[in-house]
Specification:
Length: 208
């Protein structure tokens, strides 16, 4: 009887993974194509959907790199976000911090020529509460070759930021580019909750 109950519990847990659904969360100007710059061009402090969180207005903007002008291109579309001198930029999304729901941020970090080992930071906030962060450097990656980067978190039932909107924060100590920012929420379906309840009941019966 114990082996049968254990098997049912395993099936229930496996079912949780199979029926949980990833839902893309809309990000304004996620590939930094607006405003459109001419080849090789850039601007300062003007990227729709994004705003300066800290640092100088002169140290961030949209940038259209080309092979002829800069030796590389964007990883997605024509343009990227550039930041330098510890400028941090942000966008608050429609995603809400919800207990048990995973949020996954994915993007490309792009090393710029003449800036080896440049540092960068990727973070998720809810207001002033830090949810998750990653600080790294581009290391020996070739100039212009995107570094796929991911950052995720799953809040518990007592997390202090429950109910607050999630903000994406990007920045760098020296010249680093960002592109193709995506955010997904993994939301349990009603079926997965039923399976979880079943697995819990099975475990309770087995302990009895």
């Amino acid at each position: 009887m114990r082996s049968v109950c254990a098997l049912i519990g395993i099936v229930g847990v496996a079912g949780l993974a199979s029926v949980a659904a990833a839902e893309p969360i809309f990000i304004t100007n996620h590939s930094f194509e607006q405003p459109a710059m001419g080849p090789g061009g850039f601007n300062q402090n003007d990227v729709p959907g994004w705003s300066l969180r800290s640092g100088s207005i002169f140290n961030w903007g949209a940038f259209h790199p080309t092979v002829s002008s800069w030796g590389y291109t964007a990883s997605h579309g024509n343009q990227v976000l550039y930041t330098n001198s510890n400028a941090m930029v942000q966008q608050t999304t429609s995603a809400i911090v919800t207990a048990g729901e995973q949020t996954l941020l994915e993007l490309d970090v792009i090393p710029r020529p003449l800036h080896p080992n440049a540092s960068y930071t990727v973070a998720l906030y809810a207001g002033n509460t830090l949810l998750a962060s990653l600080t790294n450097n581009v290391g020996p990656s070739p100039n212009g070759v995107p570094i796929p980067t991911a950052l995720g978190f799953t809040p518990g039932a007592a997390h202090p930021a429950l109910g607050l909107p999630i903000t994406i924060v990007l920045g760098s100590g020296t010249q680093v580019n960002f592109d193709n920012v995506r955010l997904n929420g993994v939301v349990p379906s009603p079926g997965s909750l039923a399976l979880a309840a079943m697995a819990g009941l099975v475990g309770l019966r087995r302990r009895r």
